[in-house]
Each structure stands twice: as structure tokens, then as C-alpha cells.
Amino acid sequence: MASATAYAPGRVELLGNHTDYNRGVVLAAAIDRGLTVTGSSRDDDVISLRASGPKARLTVAIRELRPQTEQRWANYPLGVVQQFLRAGYEIRGFEAEVSGDVPAGAGLSSSAAFEVATAGLLMKLHQLRIEPLEVAKLCQRAENEFVGVKSGLLDQATSVFGRADHLVFLDFNTDAIRTIAFPPNFALVIADSGKKHNLLQSKYNTRREECVAAARALGVDSLREVTPEQLDAARASLDPILYRRAAHIVGENSRVAHAVEALRIGDAAAIGVLMNASHESSRTNFENSTPELDTLVEVARSVSGVLGSRLTGGGFGGGTVTLVHAAEAESVAEQIQRAYTERSGHSSAPFVCRIADGAAVGWHVNETQDGAHAAGAKLDRI
Ligand code: GLA
After folding, report:
1. Residue of the nearest CA to atom 9 in ligand 1?
2. Which of 74, 144, 211, 248 is deepest in the core (most CB within 10 A)?
3. How far, in Å, from the CA of 10 to the mean position of ligand 1?
4. In this structure, which residue's CA is closest to atom 10 in ligand 1?
């Protein structure tokens, strides 16, 4: 039986922290690490999933889809199946196996990569054509409703729309998405704090509720509508916590706007400054940093060749992204690794990430004639 394969990358958020579910703007990129889901159709309604590691097999009937409490990893693909069914697509049973190299809990959206790759596999096996933005939204709903994290659309949309050597600019007020060339001669170093984040158990959903409450207190539908001046004027009448949450979102939206302008004129130094300010705002206003993430950015900023450093993604653990001169990127990664372990006692394996293309699907080919693995050679963008 023909089997299909789908690949979806992880993502790094460069600027625009927690702005997505506030109808704000983000600059992000798909990275050169991702997940591949390979599988084939069955004649019944059974889904059989395999991952690596213990407890990494699950078989469930499509009519009995429900969130798994023991094998939570399976909730990403199962949630996507449920959303396809809800959207009216007829889904038959299938077998699928996931593999890849996006570390879980590192702030690089392994969960979105798993969802998007599953969506790609389902589309290929059932010969469905779905608009890329709709694919991202189906996957987001899987995360919101089946996994239980009230995340925005950033991770899934970046995994779908990523483009090699480009940043993805996303405006969640209009759903406009475009790519902007990443400045040549610069690179991104990603470093894991060694403290995993788990958005389900973290204060992610609480932050989202606080943002909604802040918008309500300010008399607007979303924090996107608030300018820095309006927020300043309302400060005295706003609960101090809600003020700080709103200040983070309003500040992030403005930093993204400045970064887009800096990209236009090739001013990478300005982007570094904005990244540093973003982390400071996470630390003090949004309180989604951790001592480990703070140490990582401090260590990075003390290394020569670094323009700026901040936490990336949801926060509460996970990792950081650091903008560096490309020529010094490998040496920066090594120096961050050494200094972070010395200072924190935790280990980190920073790596220089290549900005890569987004998700793709194709028919799976096991082996070429000379025995080389050919999967991936025949993939087309979603
Ligand atoms: C996580 C969520 C995203 C986004 C970021 C923070 O990655 O999944 O939707 O909110 O955090 O910007």
C-alpha cells in the first residue's frame, strides 16, 4: 500500500511575544529541525500511532477519539484527526510513525510541528486540498480543544509558511502573512535552558486570561488596539498586574513594527536592541521568564559577536534566541554553552539554526536503488 510522508519544522519566535492571541504582530522563522510523520491508510477506522521511546505506541478507533492522559504525546495527532472530522473531512483509519529532531519543551514548537505534519499526512492519504492558512488553523484548534493549551496561531502558521533565509511576518489582526529576507551575514543561535516548559501546566492560559481582562478594562476588543500613549494615560486606573501584562503586549507590537523597519534598512544592531528590550519586558512585565532563561540571555550578551538575546516562545522554561554575526556564530554557541553551565549548573546544547522552509508532503519512497533513503526528496509544500 502506498504510504505518504509529511514534514513540518519547528519555529523560533524572534520578536512579538504572546502577541498572537492578542491580534498582534510577530516576526518568526521556521528552523532546520522538524518532525516527519510517515504512514499509510487502513481499511478500517483504527488509528495506530508510533513514536520512539517507552509507551510510544497507541491504537485507538476513530469513533472513540478522546484526549489521552497517559500517552499525552498522542494528543497532538489525535486532536488533528478530530478537527478534520469536525471540518467535515472523511478520515479513514491509518498507521503513522513520527520521528524528528525538534526537542520537546525547548520553546521550539515541537507540538505544532507534530500537528502540522499530521495534517499534511492526512491530506496526502485522503487526497484533500486545504488552504495553508486553514491547515494552520485546524492544527491550532487541535491544540486549543484537544490538548487544552489556549495558544494562538503563531507556531502552526510559521511551521506552514516558513521560507528558507526569510523571517515570517504575521499580523493576527488581518491574518496577513508575508516573508522578509533575513539579513545576510547574521545568524540565530538557539539555546535550551535545560528546564522544559509545559504550556499545559504553566501559566500560559492564565496570561491569556489576564490579557483579555486588560483589554476589557481598557474598553477594547483586543490589546492590539491600544497604543503606548493610551496605555500610559490609563495606567493609574488599571490594576497594576493587568497594566504590566498589557505593557508587554503593546511594547512587543511596537518592537515588531520597529524591527520590520530595521530589516528594511538592514540595521541588524537595532533588532538586537529590540530583542534585549523584549526579554526585559518578559522578565518584568509579563513574568514569563525564569532564572535560567535570564542567566542564558545575560551570558549570551556578554559574548562578543552577539547583537541581542531573549527568550523565545511561551516562556516559563524553554529556550532563548540570540542574534549574532554569522562569522562568529559557532564560537558564540560554544561560549554560551560553557558559561551557562558554569553559572547555572544546568547544561544547554546551543546550536546555530538555519532558517528553513515550512511544511511539505509527498509520497513515501523507502529506498532508492543504491539503498539511500529517499524520503524527503519528493516533498511539495503544503
Ligand atoms: C507559544 C504559543 C504561541 C505563542 C507563543 C508566545 O509558542 O503556542 O501561540 O503565544 O507561545 O508568543
Report:
1. 152
2. 248
3. 12
4. 18
DSSP strands (E only) in the chain: 3-15, 25-41, 46-50, 57-61, 94-100, 166-171, 176-181, 186-192, 306-312, 319-325, 351-353, 360-363, 380-381
Q: What residue ranges define each of the domains in the chain, with the CATH number in brackets?
A: 3-180+362-374 (3.30.230.10), 183-353 (3.30.70.890)
Which atom of ligand 1 is the closest one to the Cα of 26?
A: 12
How far apart are the CA of 152 and the centre of ligand 1, in A? 6
Q: Is the CB of 151 under 6 A from ligand 1?
A: yes
Positive/negative CA dihedral, 243, 244, 249, 254: positive
d(CA 314, CA 239): 23
Nearest residue (CA) to ligand 1, atom 4: 18
CB 248 near ligand 1, within 6 Å: no
Could you list the pLDDT tens digit for every one of the 382 residues in the chain?
Answer: 679 999 999 999 999 999 999 999 999 999 999 999 999 999 999 999 999 887 799 999 999 999 999 999 999 999 999 999 999 999 999 999 999 999 888 899 999 999 999 999 999 999 999 999 999 999 999 999 999 999 999 999 999 999 999 999 999 999 999 999 999 999 999 999 998 878 777 899 999 999 999 999 999 999 999 999 999 999 999 999 999 999 999 999 999 999 999 999 999 999 999 999 999 999 999 999 999 999 999 999 999 999 999 999 999 999 999 999 999 999 999 999 999 999 999 999 999 999 999 999 999 876 555 554 444 457 999 9
For the Cβ of 105 lying below 6 angstroms from any atom of ligand 1, the answer is: no
Let me know the angle formed at the C-alpha of 168 by 167 and 169, rounded to the nearest 5 degrees.
115
